[in-house]
Amino acid sequence: MDVSVHDGVLTVSGERETAQDVSDDAWIRRERAWGSFERTFTLPQGTNPDDISADYQHGVWELTIPHPPERKPRKIAVGGNASNETVDVQEHEQS
Question: 19, 30 in Cβ contact below 8 A?
């Protein structure tokens, strides 16, 4: 298994192997797929890749991705000849 983050996209990839102890002609029905796979997920803006963790126990993968901190508007002081007023500025996402 491989878990990686690049440019805000989380990629989980790996390979499932077939059972080695049973020959192909012994199967009546196979419930599980085998072979390589890859899944990608776009992370919310502000997610810190260093905080993401992965664990594997008893055949189950667990990925923990903490919520990014809430983005809040900030105030910017306006200088110049005008009085020192404070203006509310909200950040807008650009597409």
Answer: no
Q: Is 63 helix (H, G, I), strand (E, B) or coil?
A: strand
Rounded to whole angstroms, the Cα distance separating 41 from 12 reads: 9
CA 33/CA 18 separation, integer angstroms: 8
At 62 the pLDDT is 92
Question: pLDDT per residue over 18-36, tens digit each?
Answer: 666 556 666 676 666 778 9
Distance CA 41, CA 25 (A): 38
Nearest to 36 by CA among 15, 13, 19, 52: 15
Q: Which residues pair with 62 in a beta bridge?
A: 55
Encoded amino acid at 40, one letter: T
CA pseudo-torsion sign 61, 42, 3, 38: positive
Kindly report which listed range (7-11, 14-18, 90-94) carries the lowest average pLDDT score: 90-94
Q: What is the dihedral of CA 20, 40, 58, 50, to 10 degrees?
A: 130
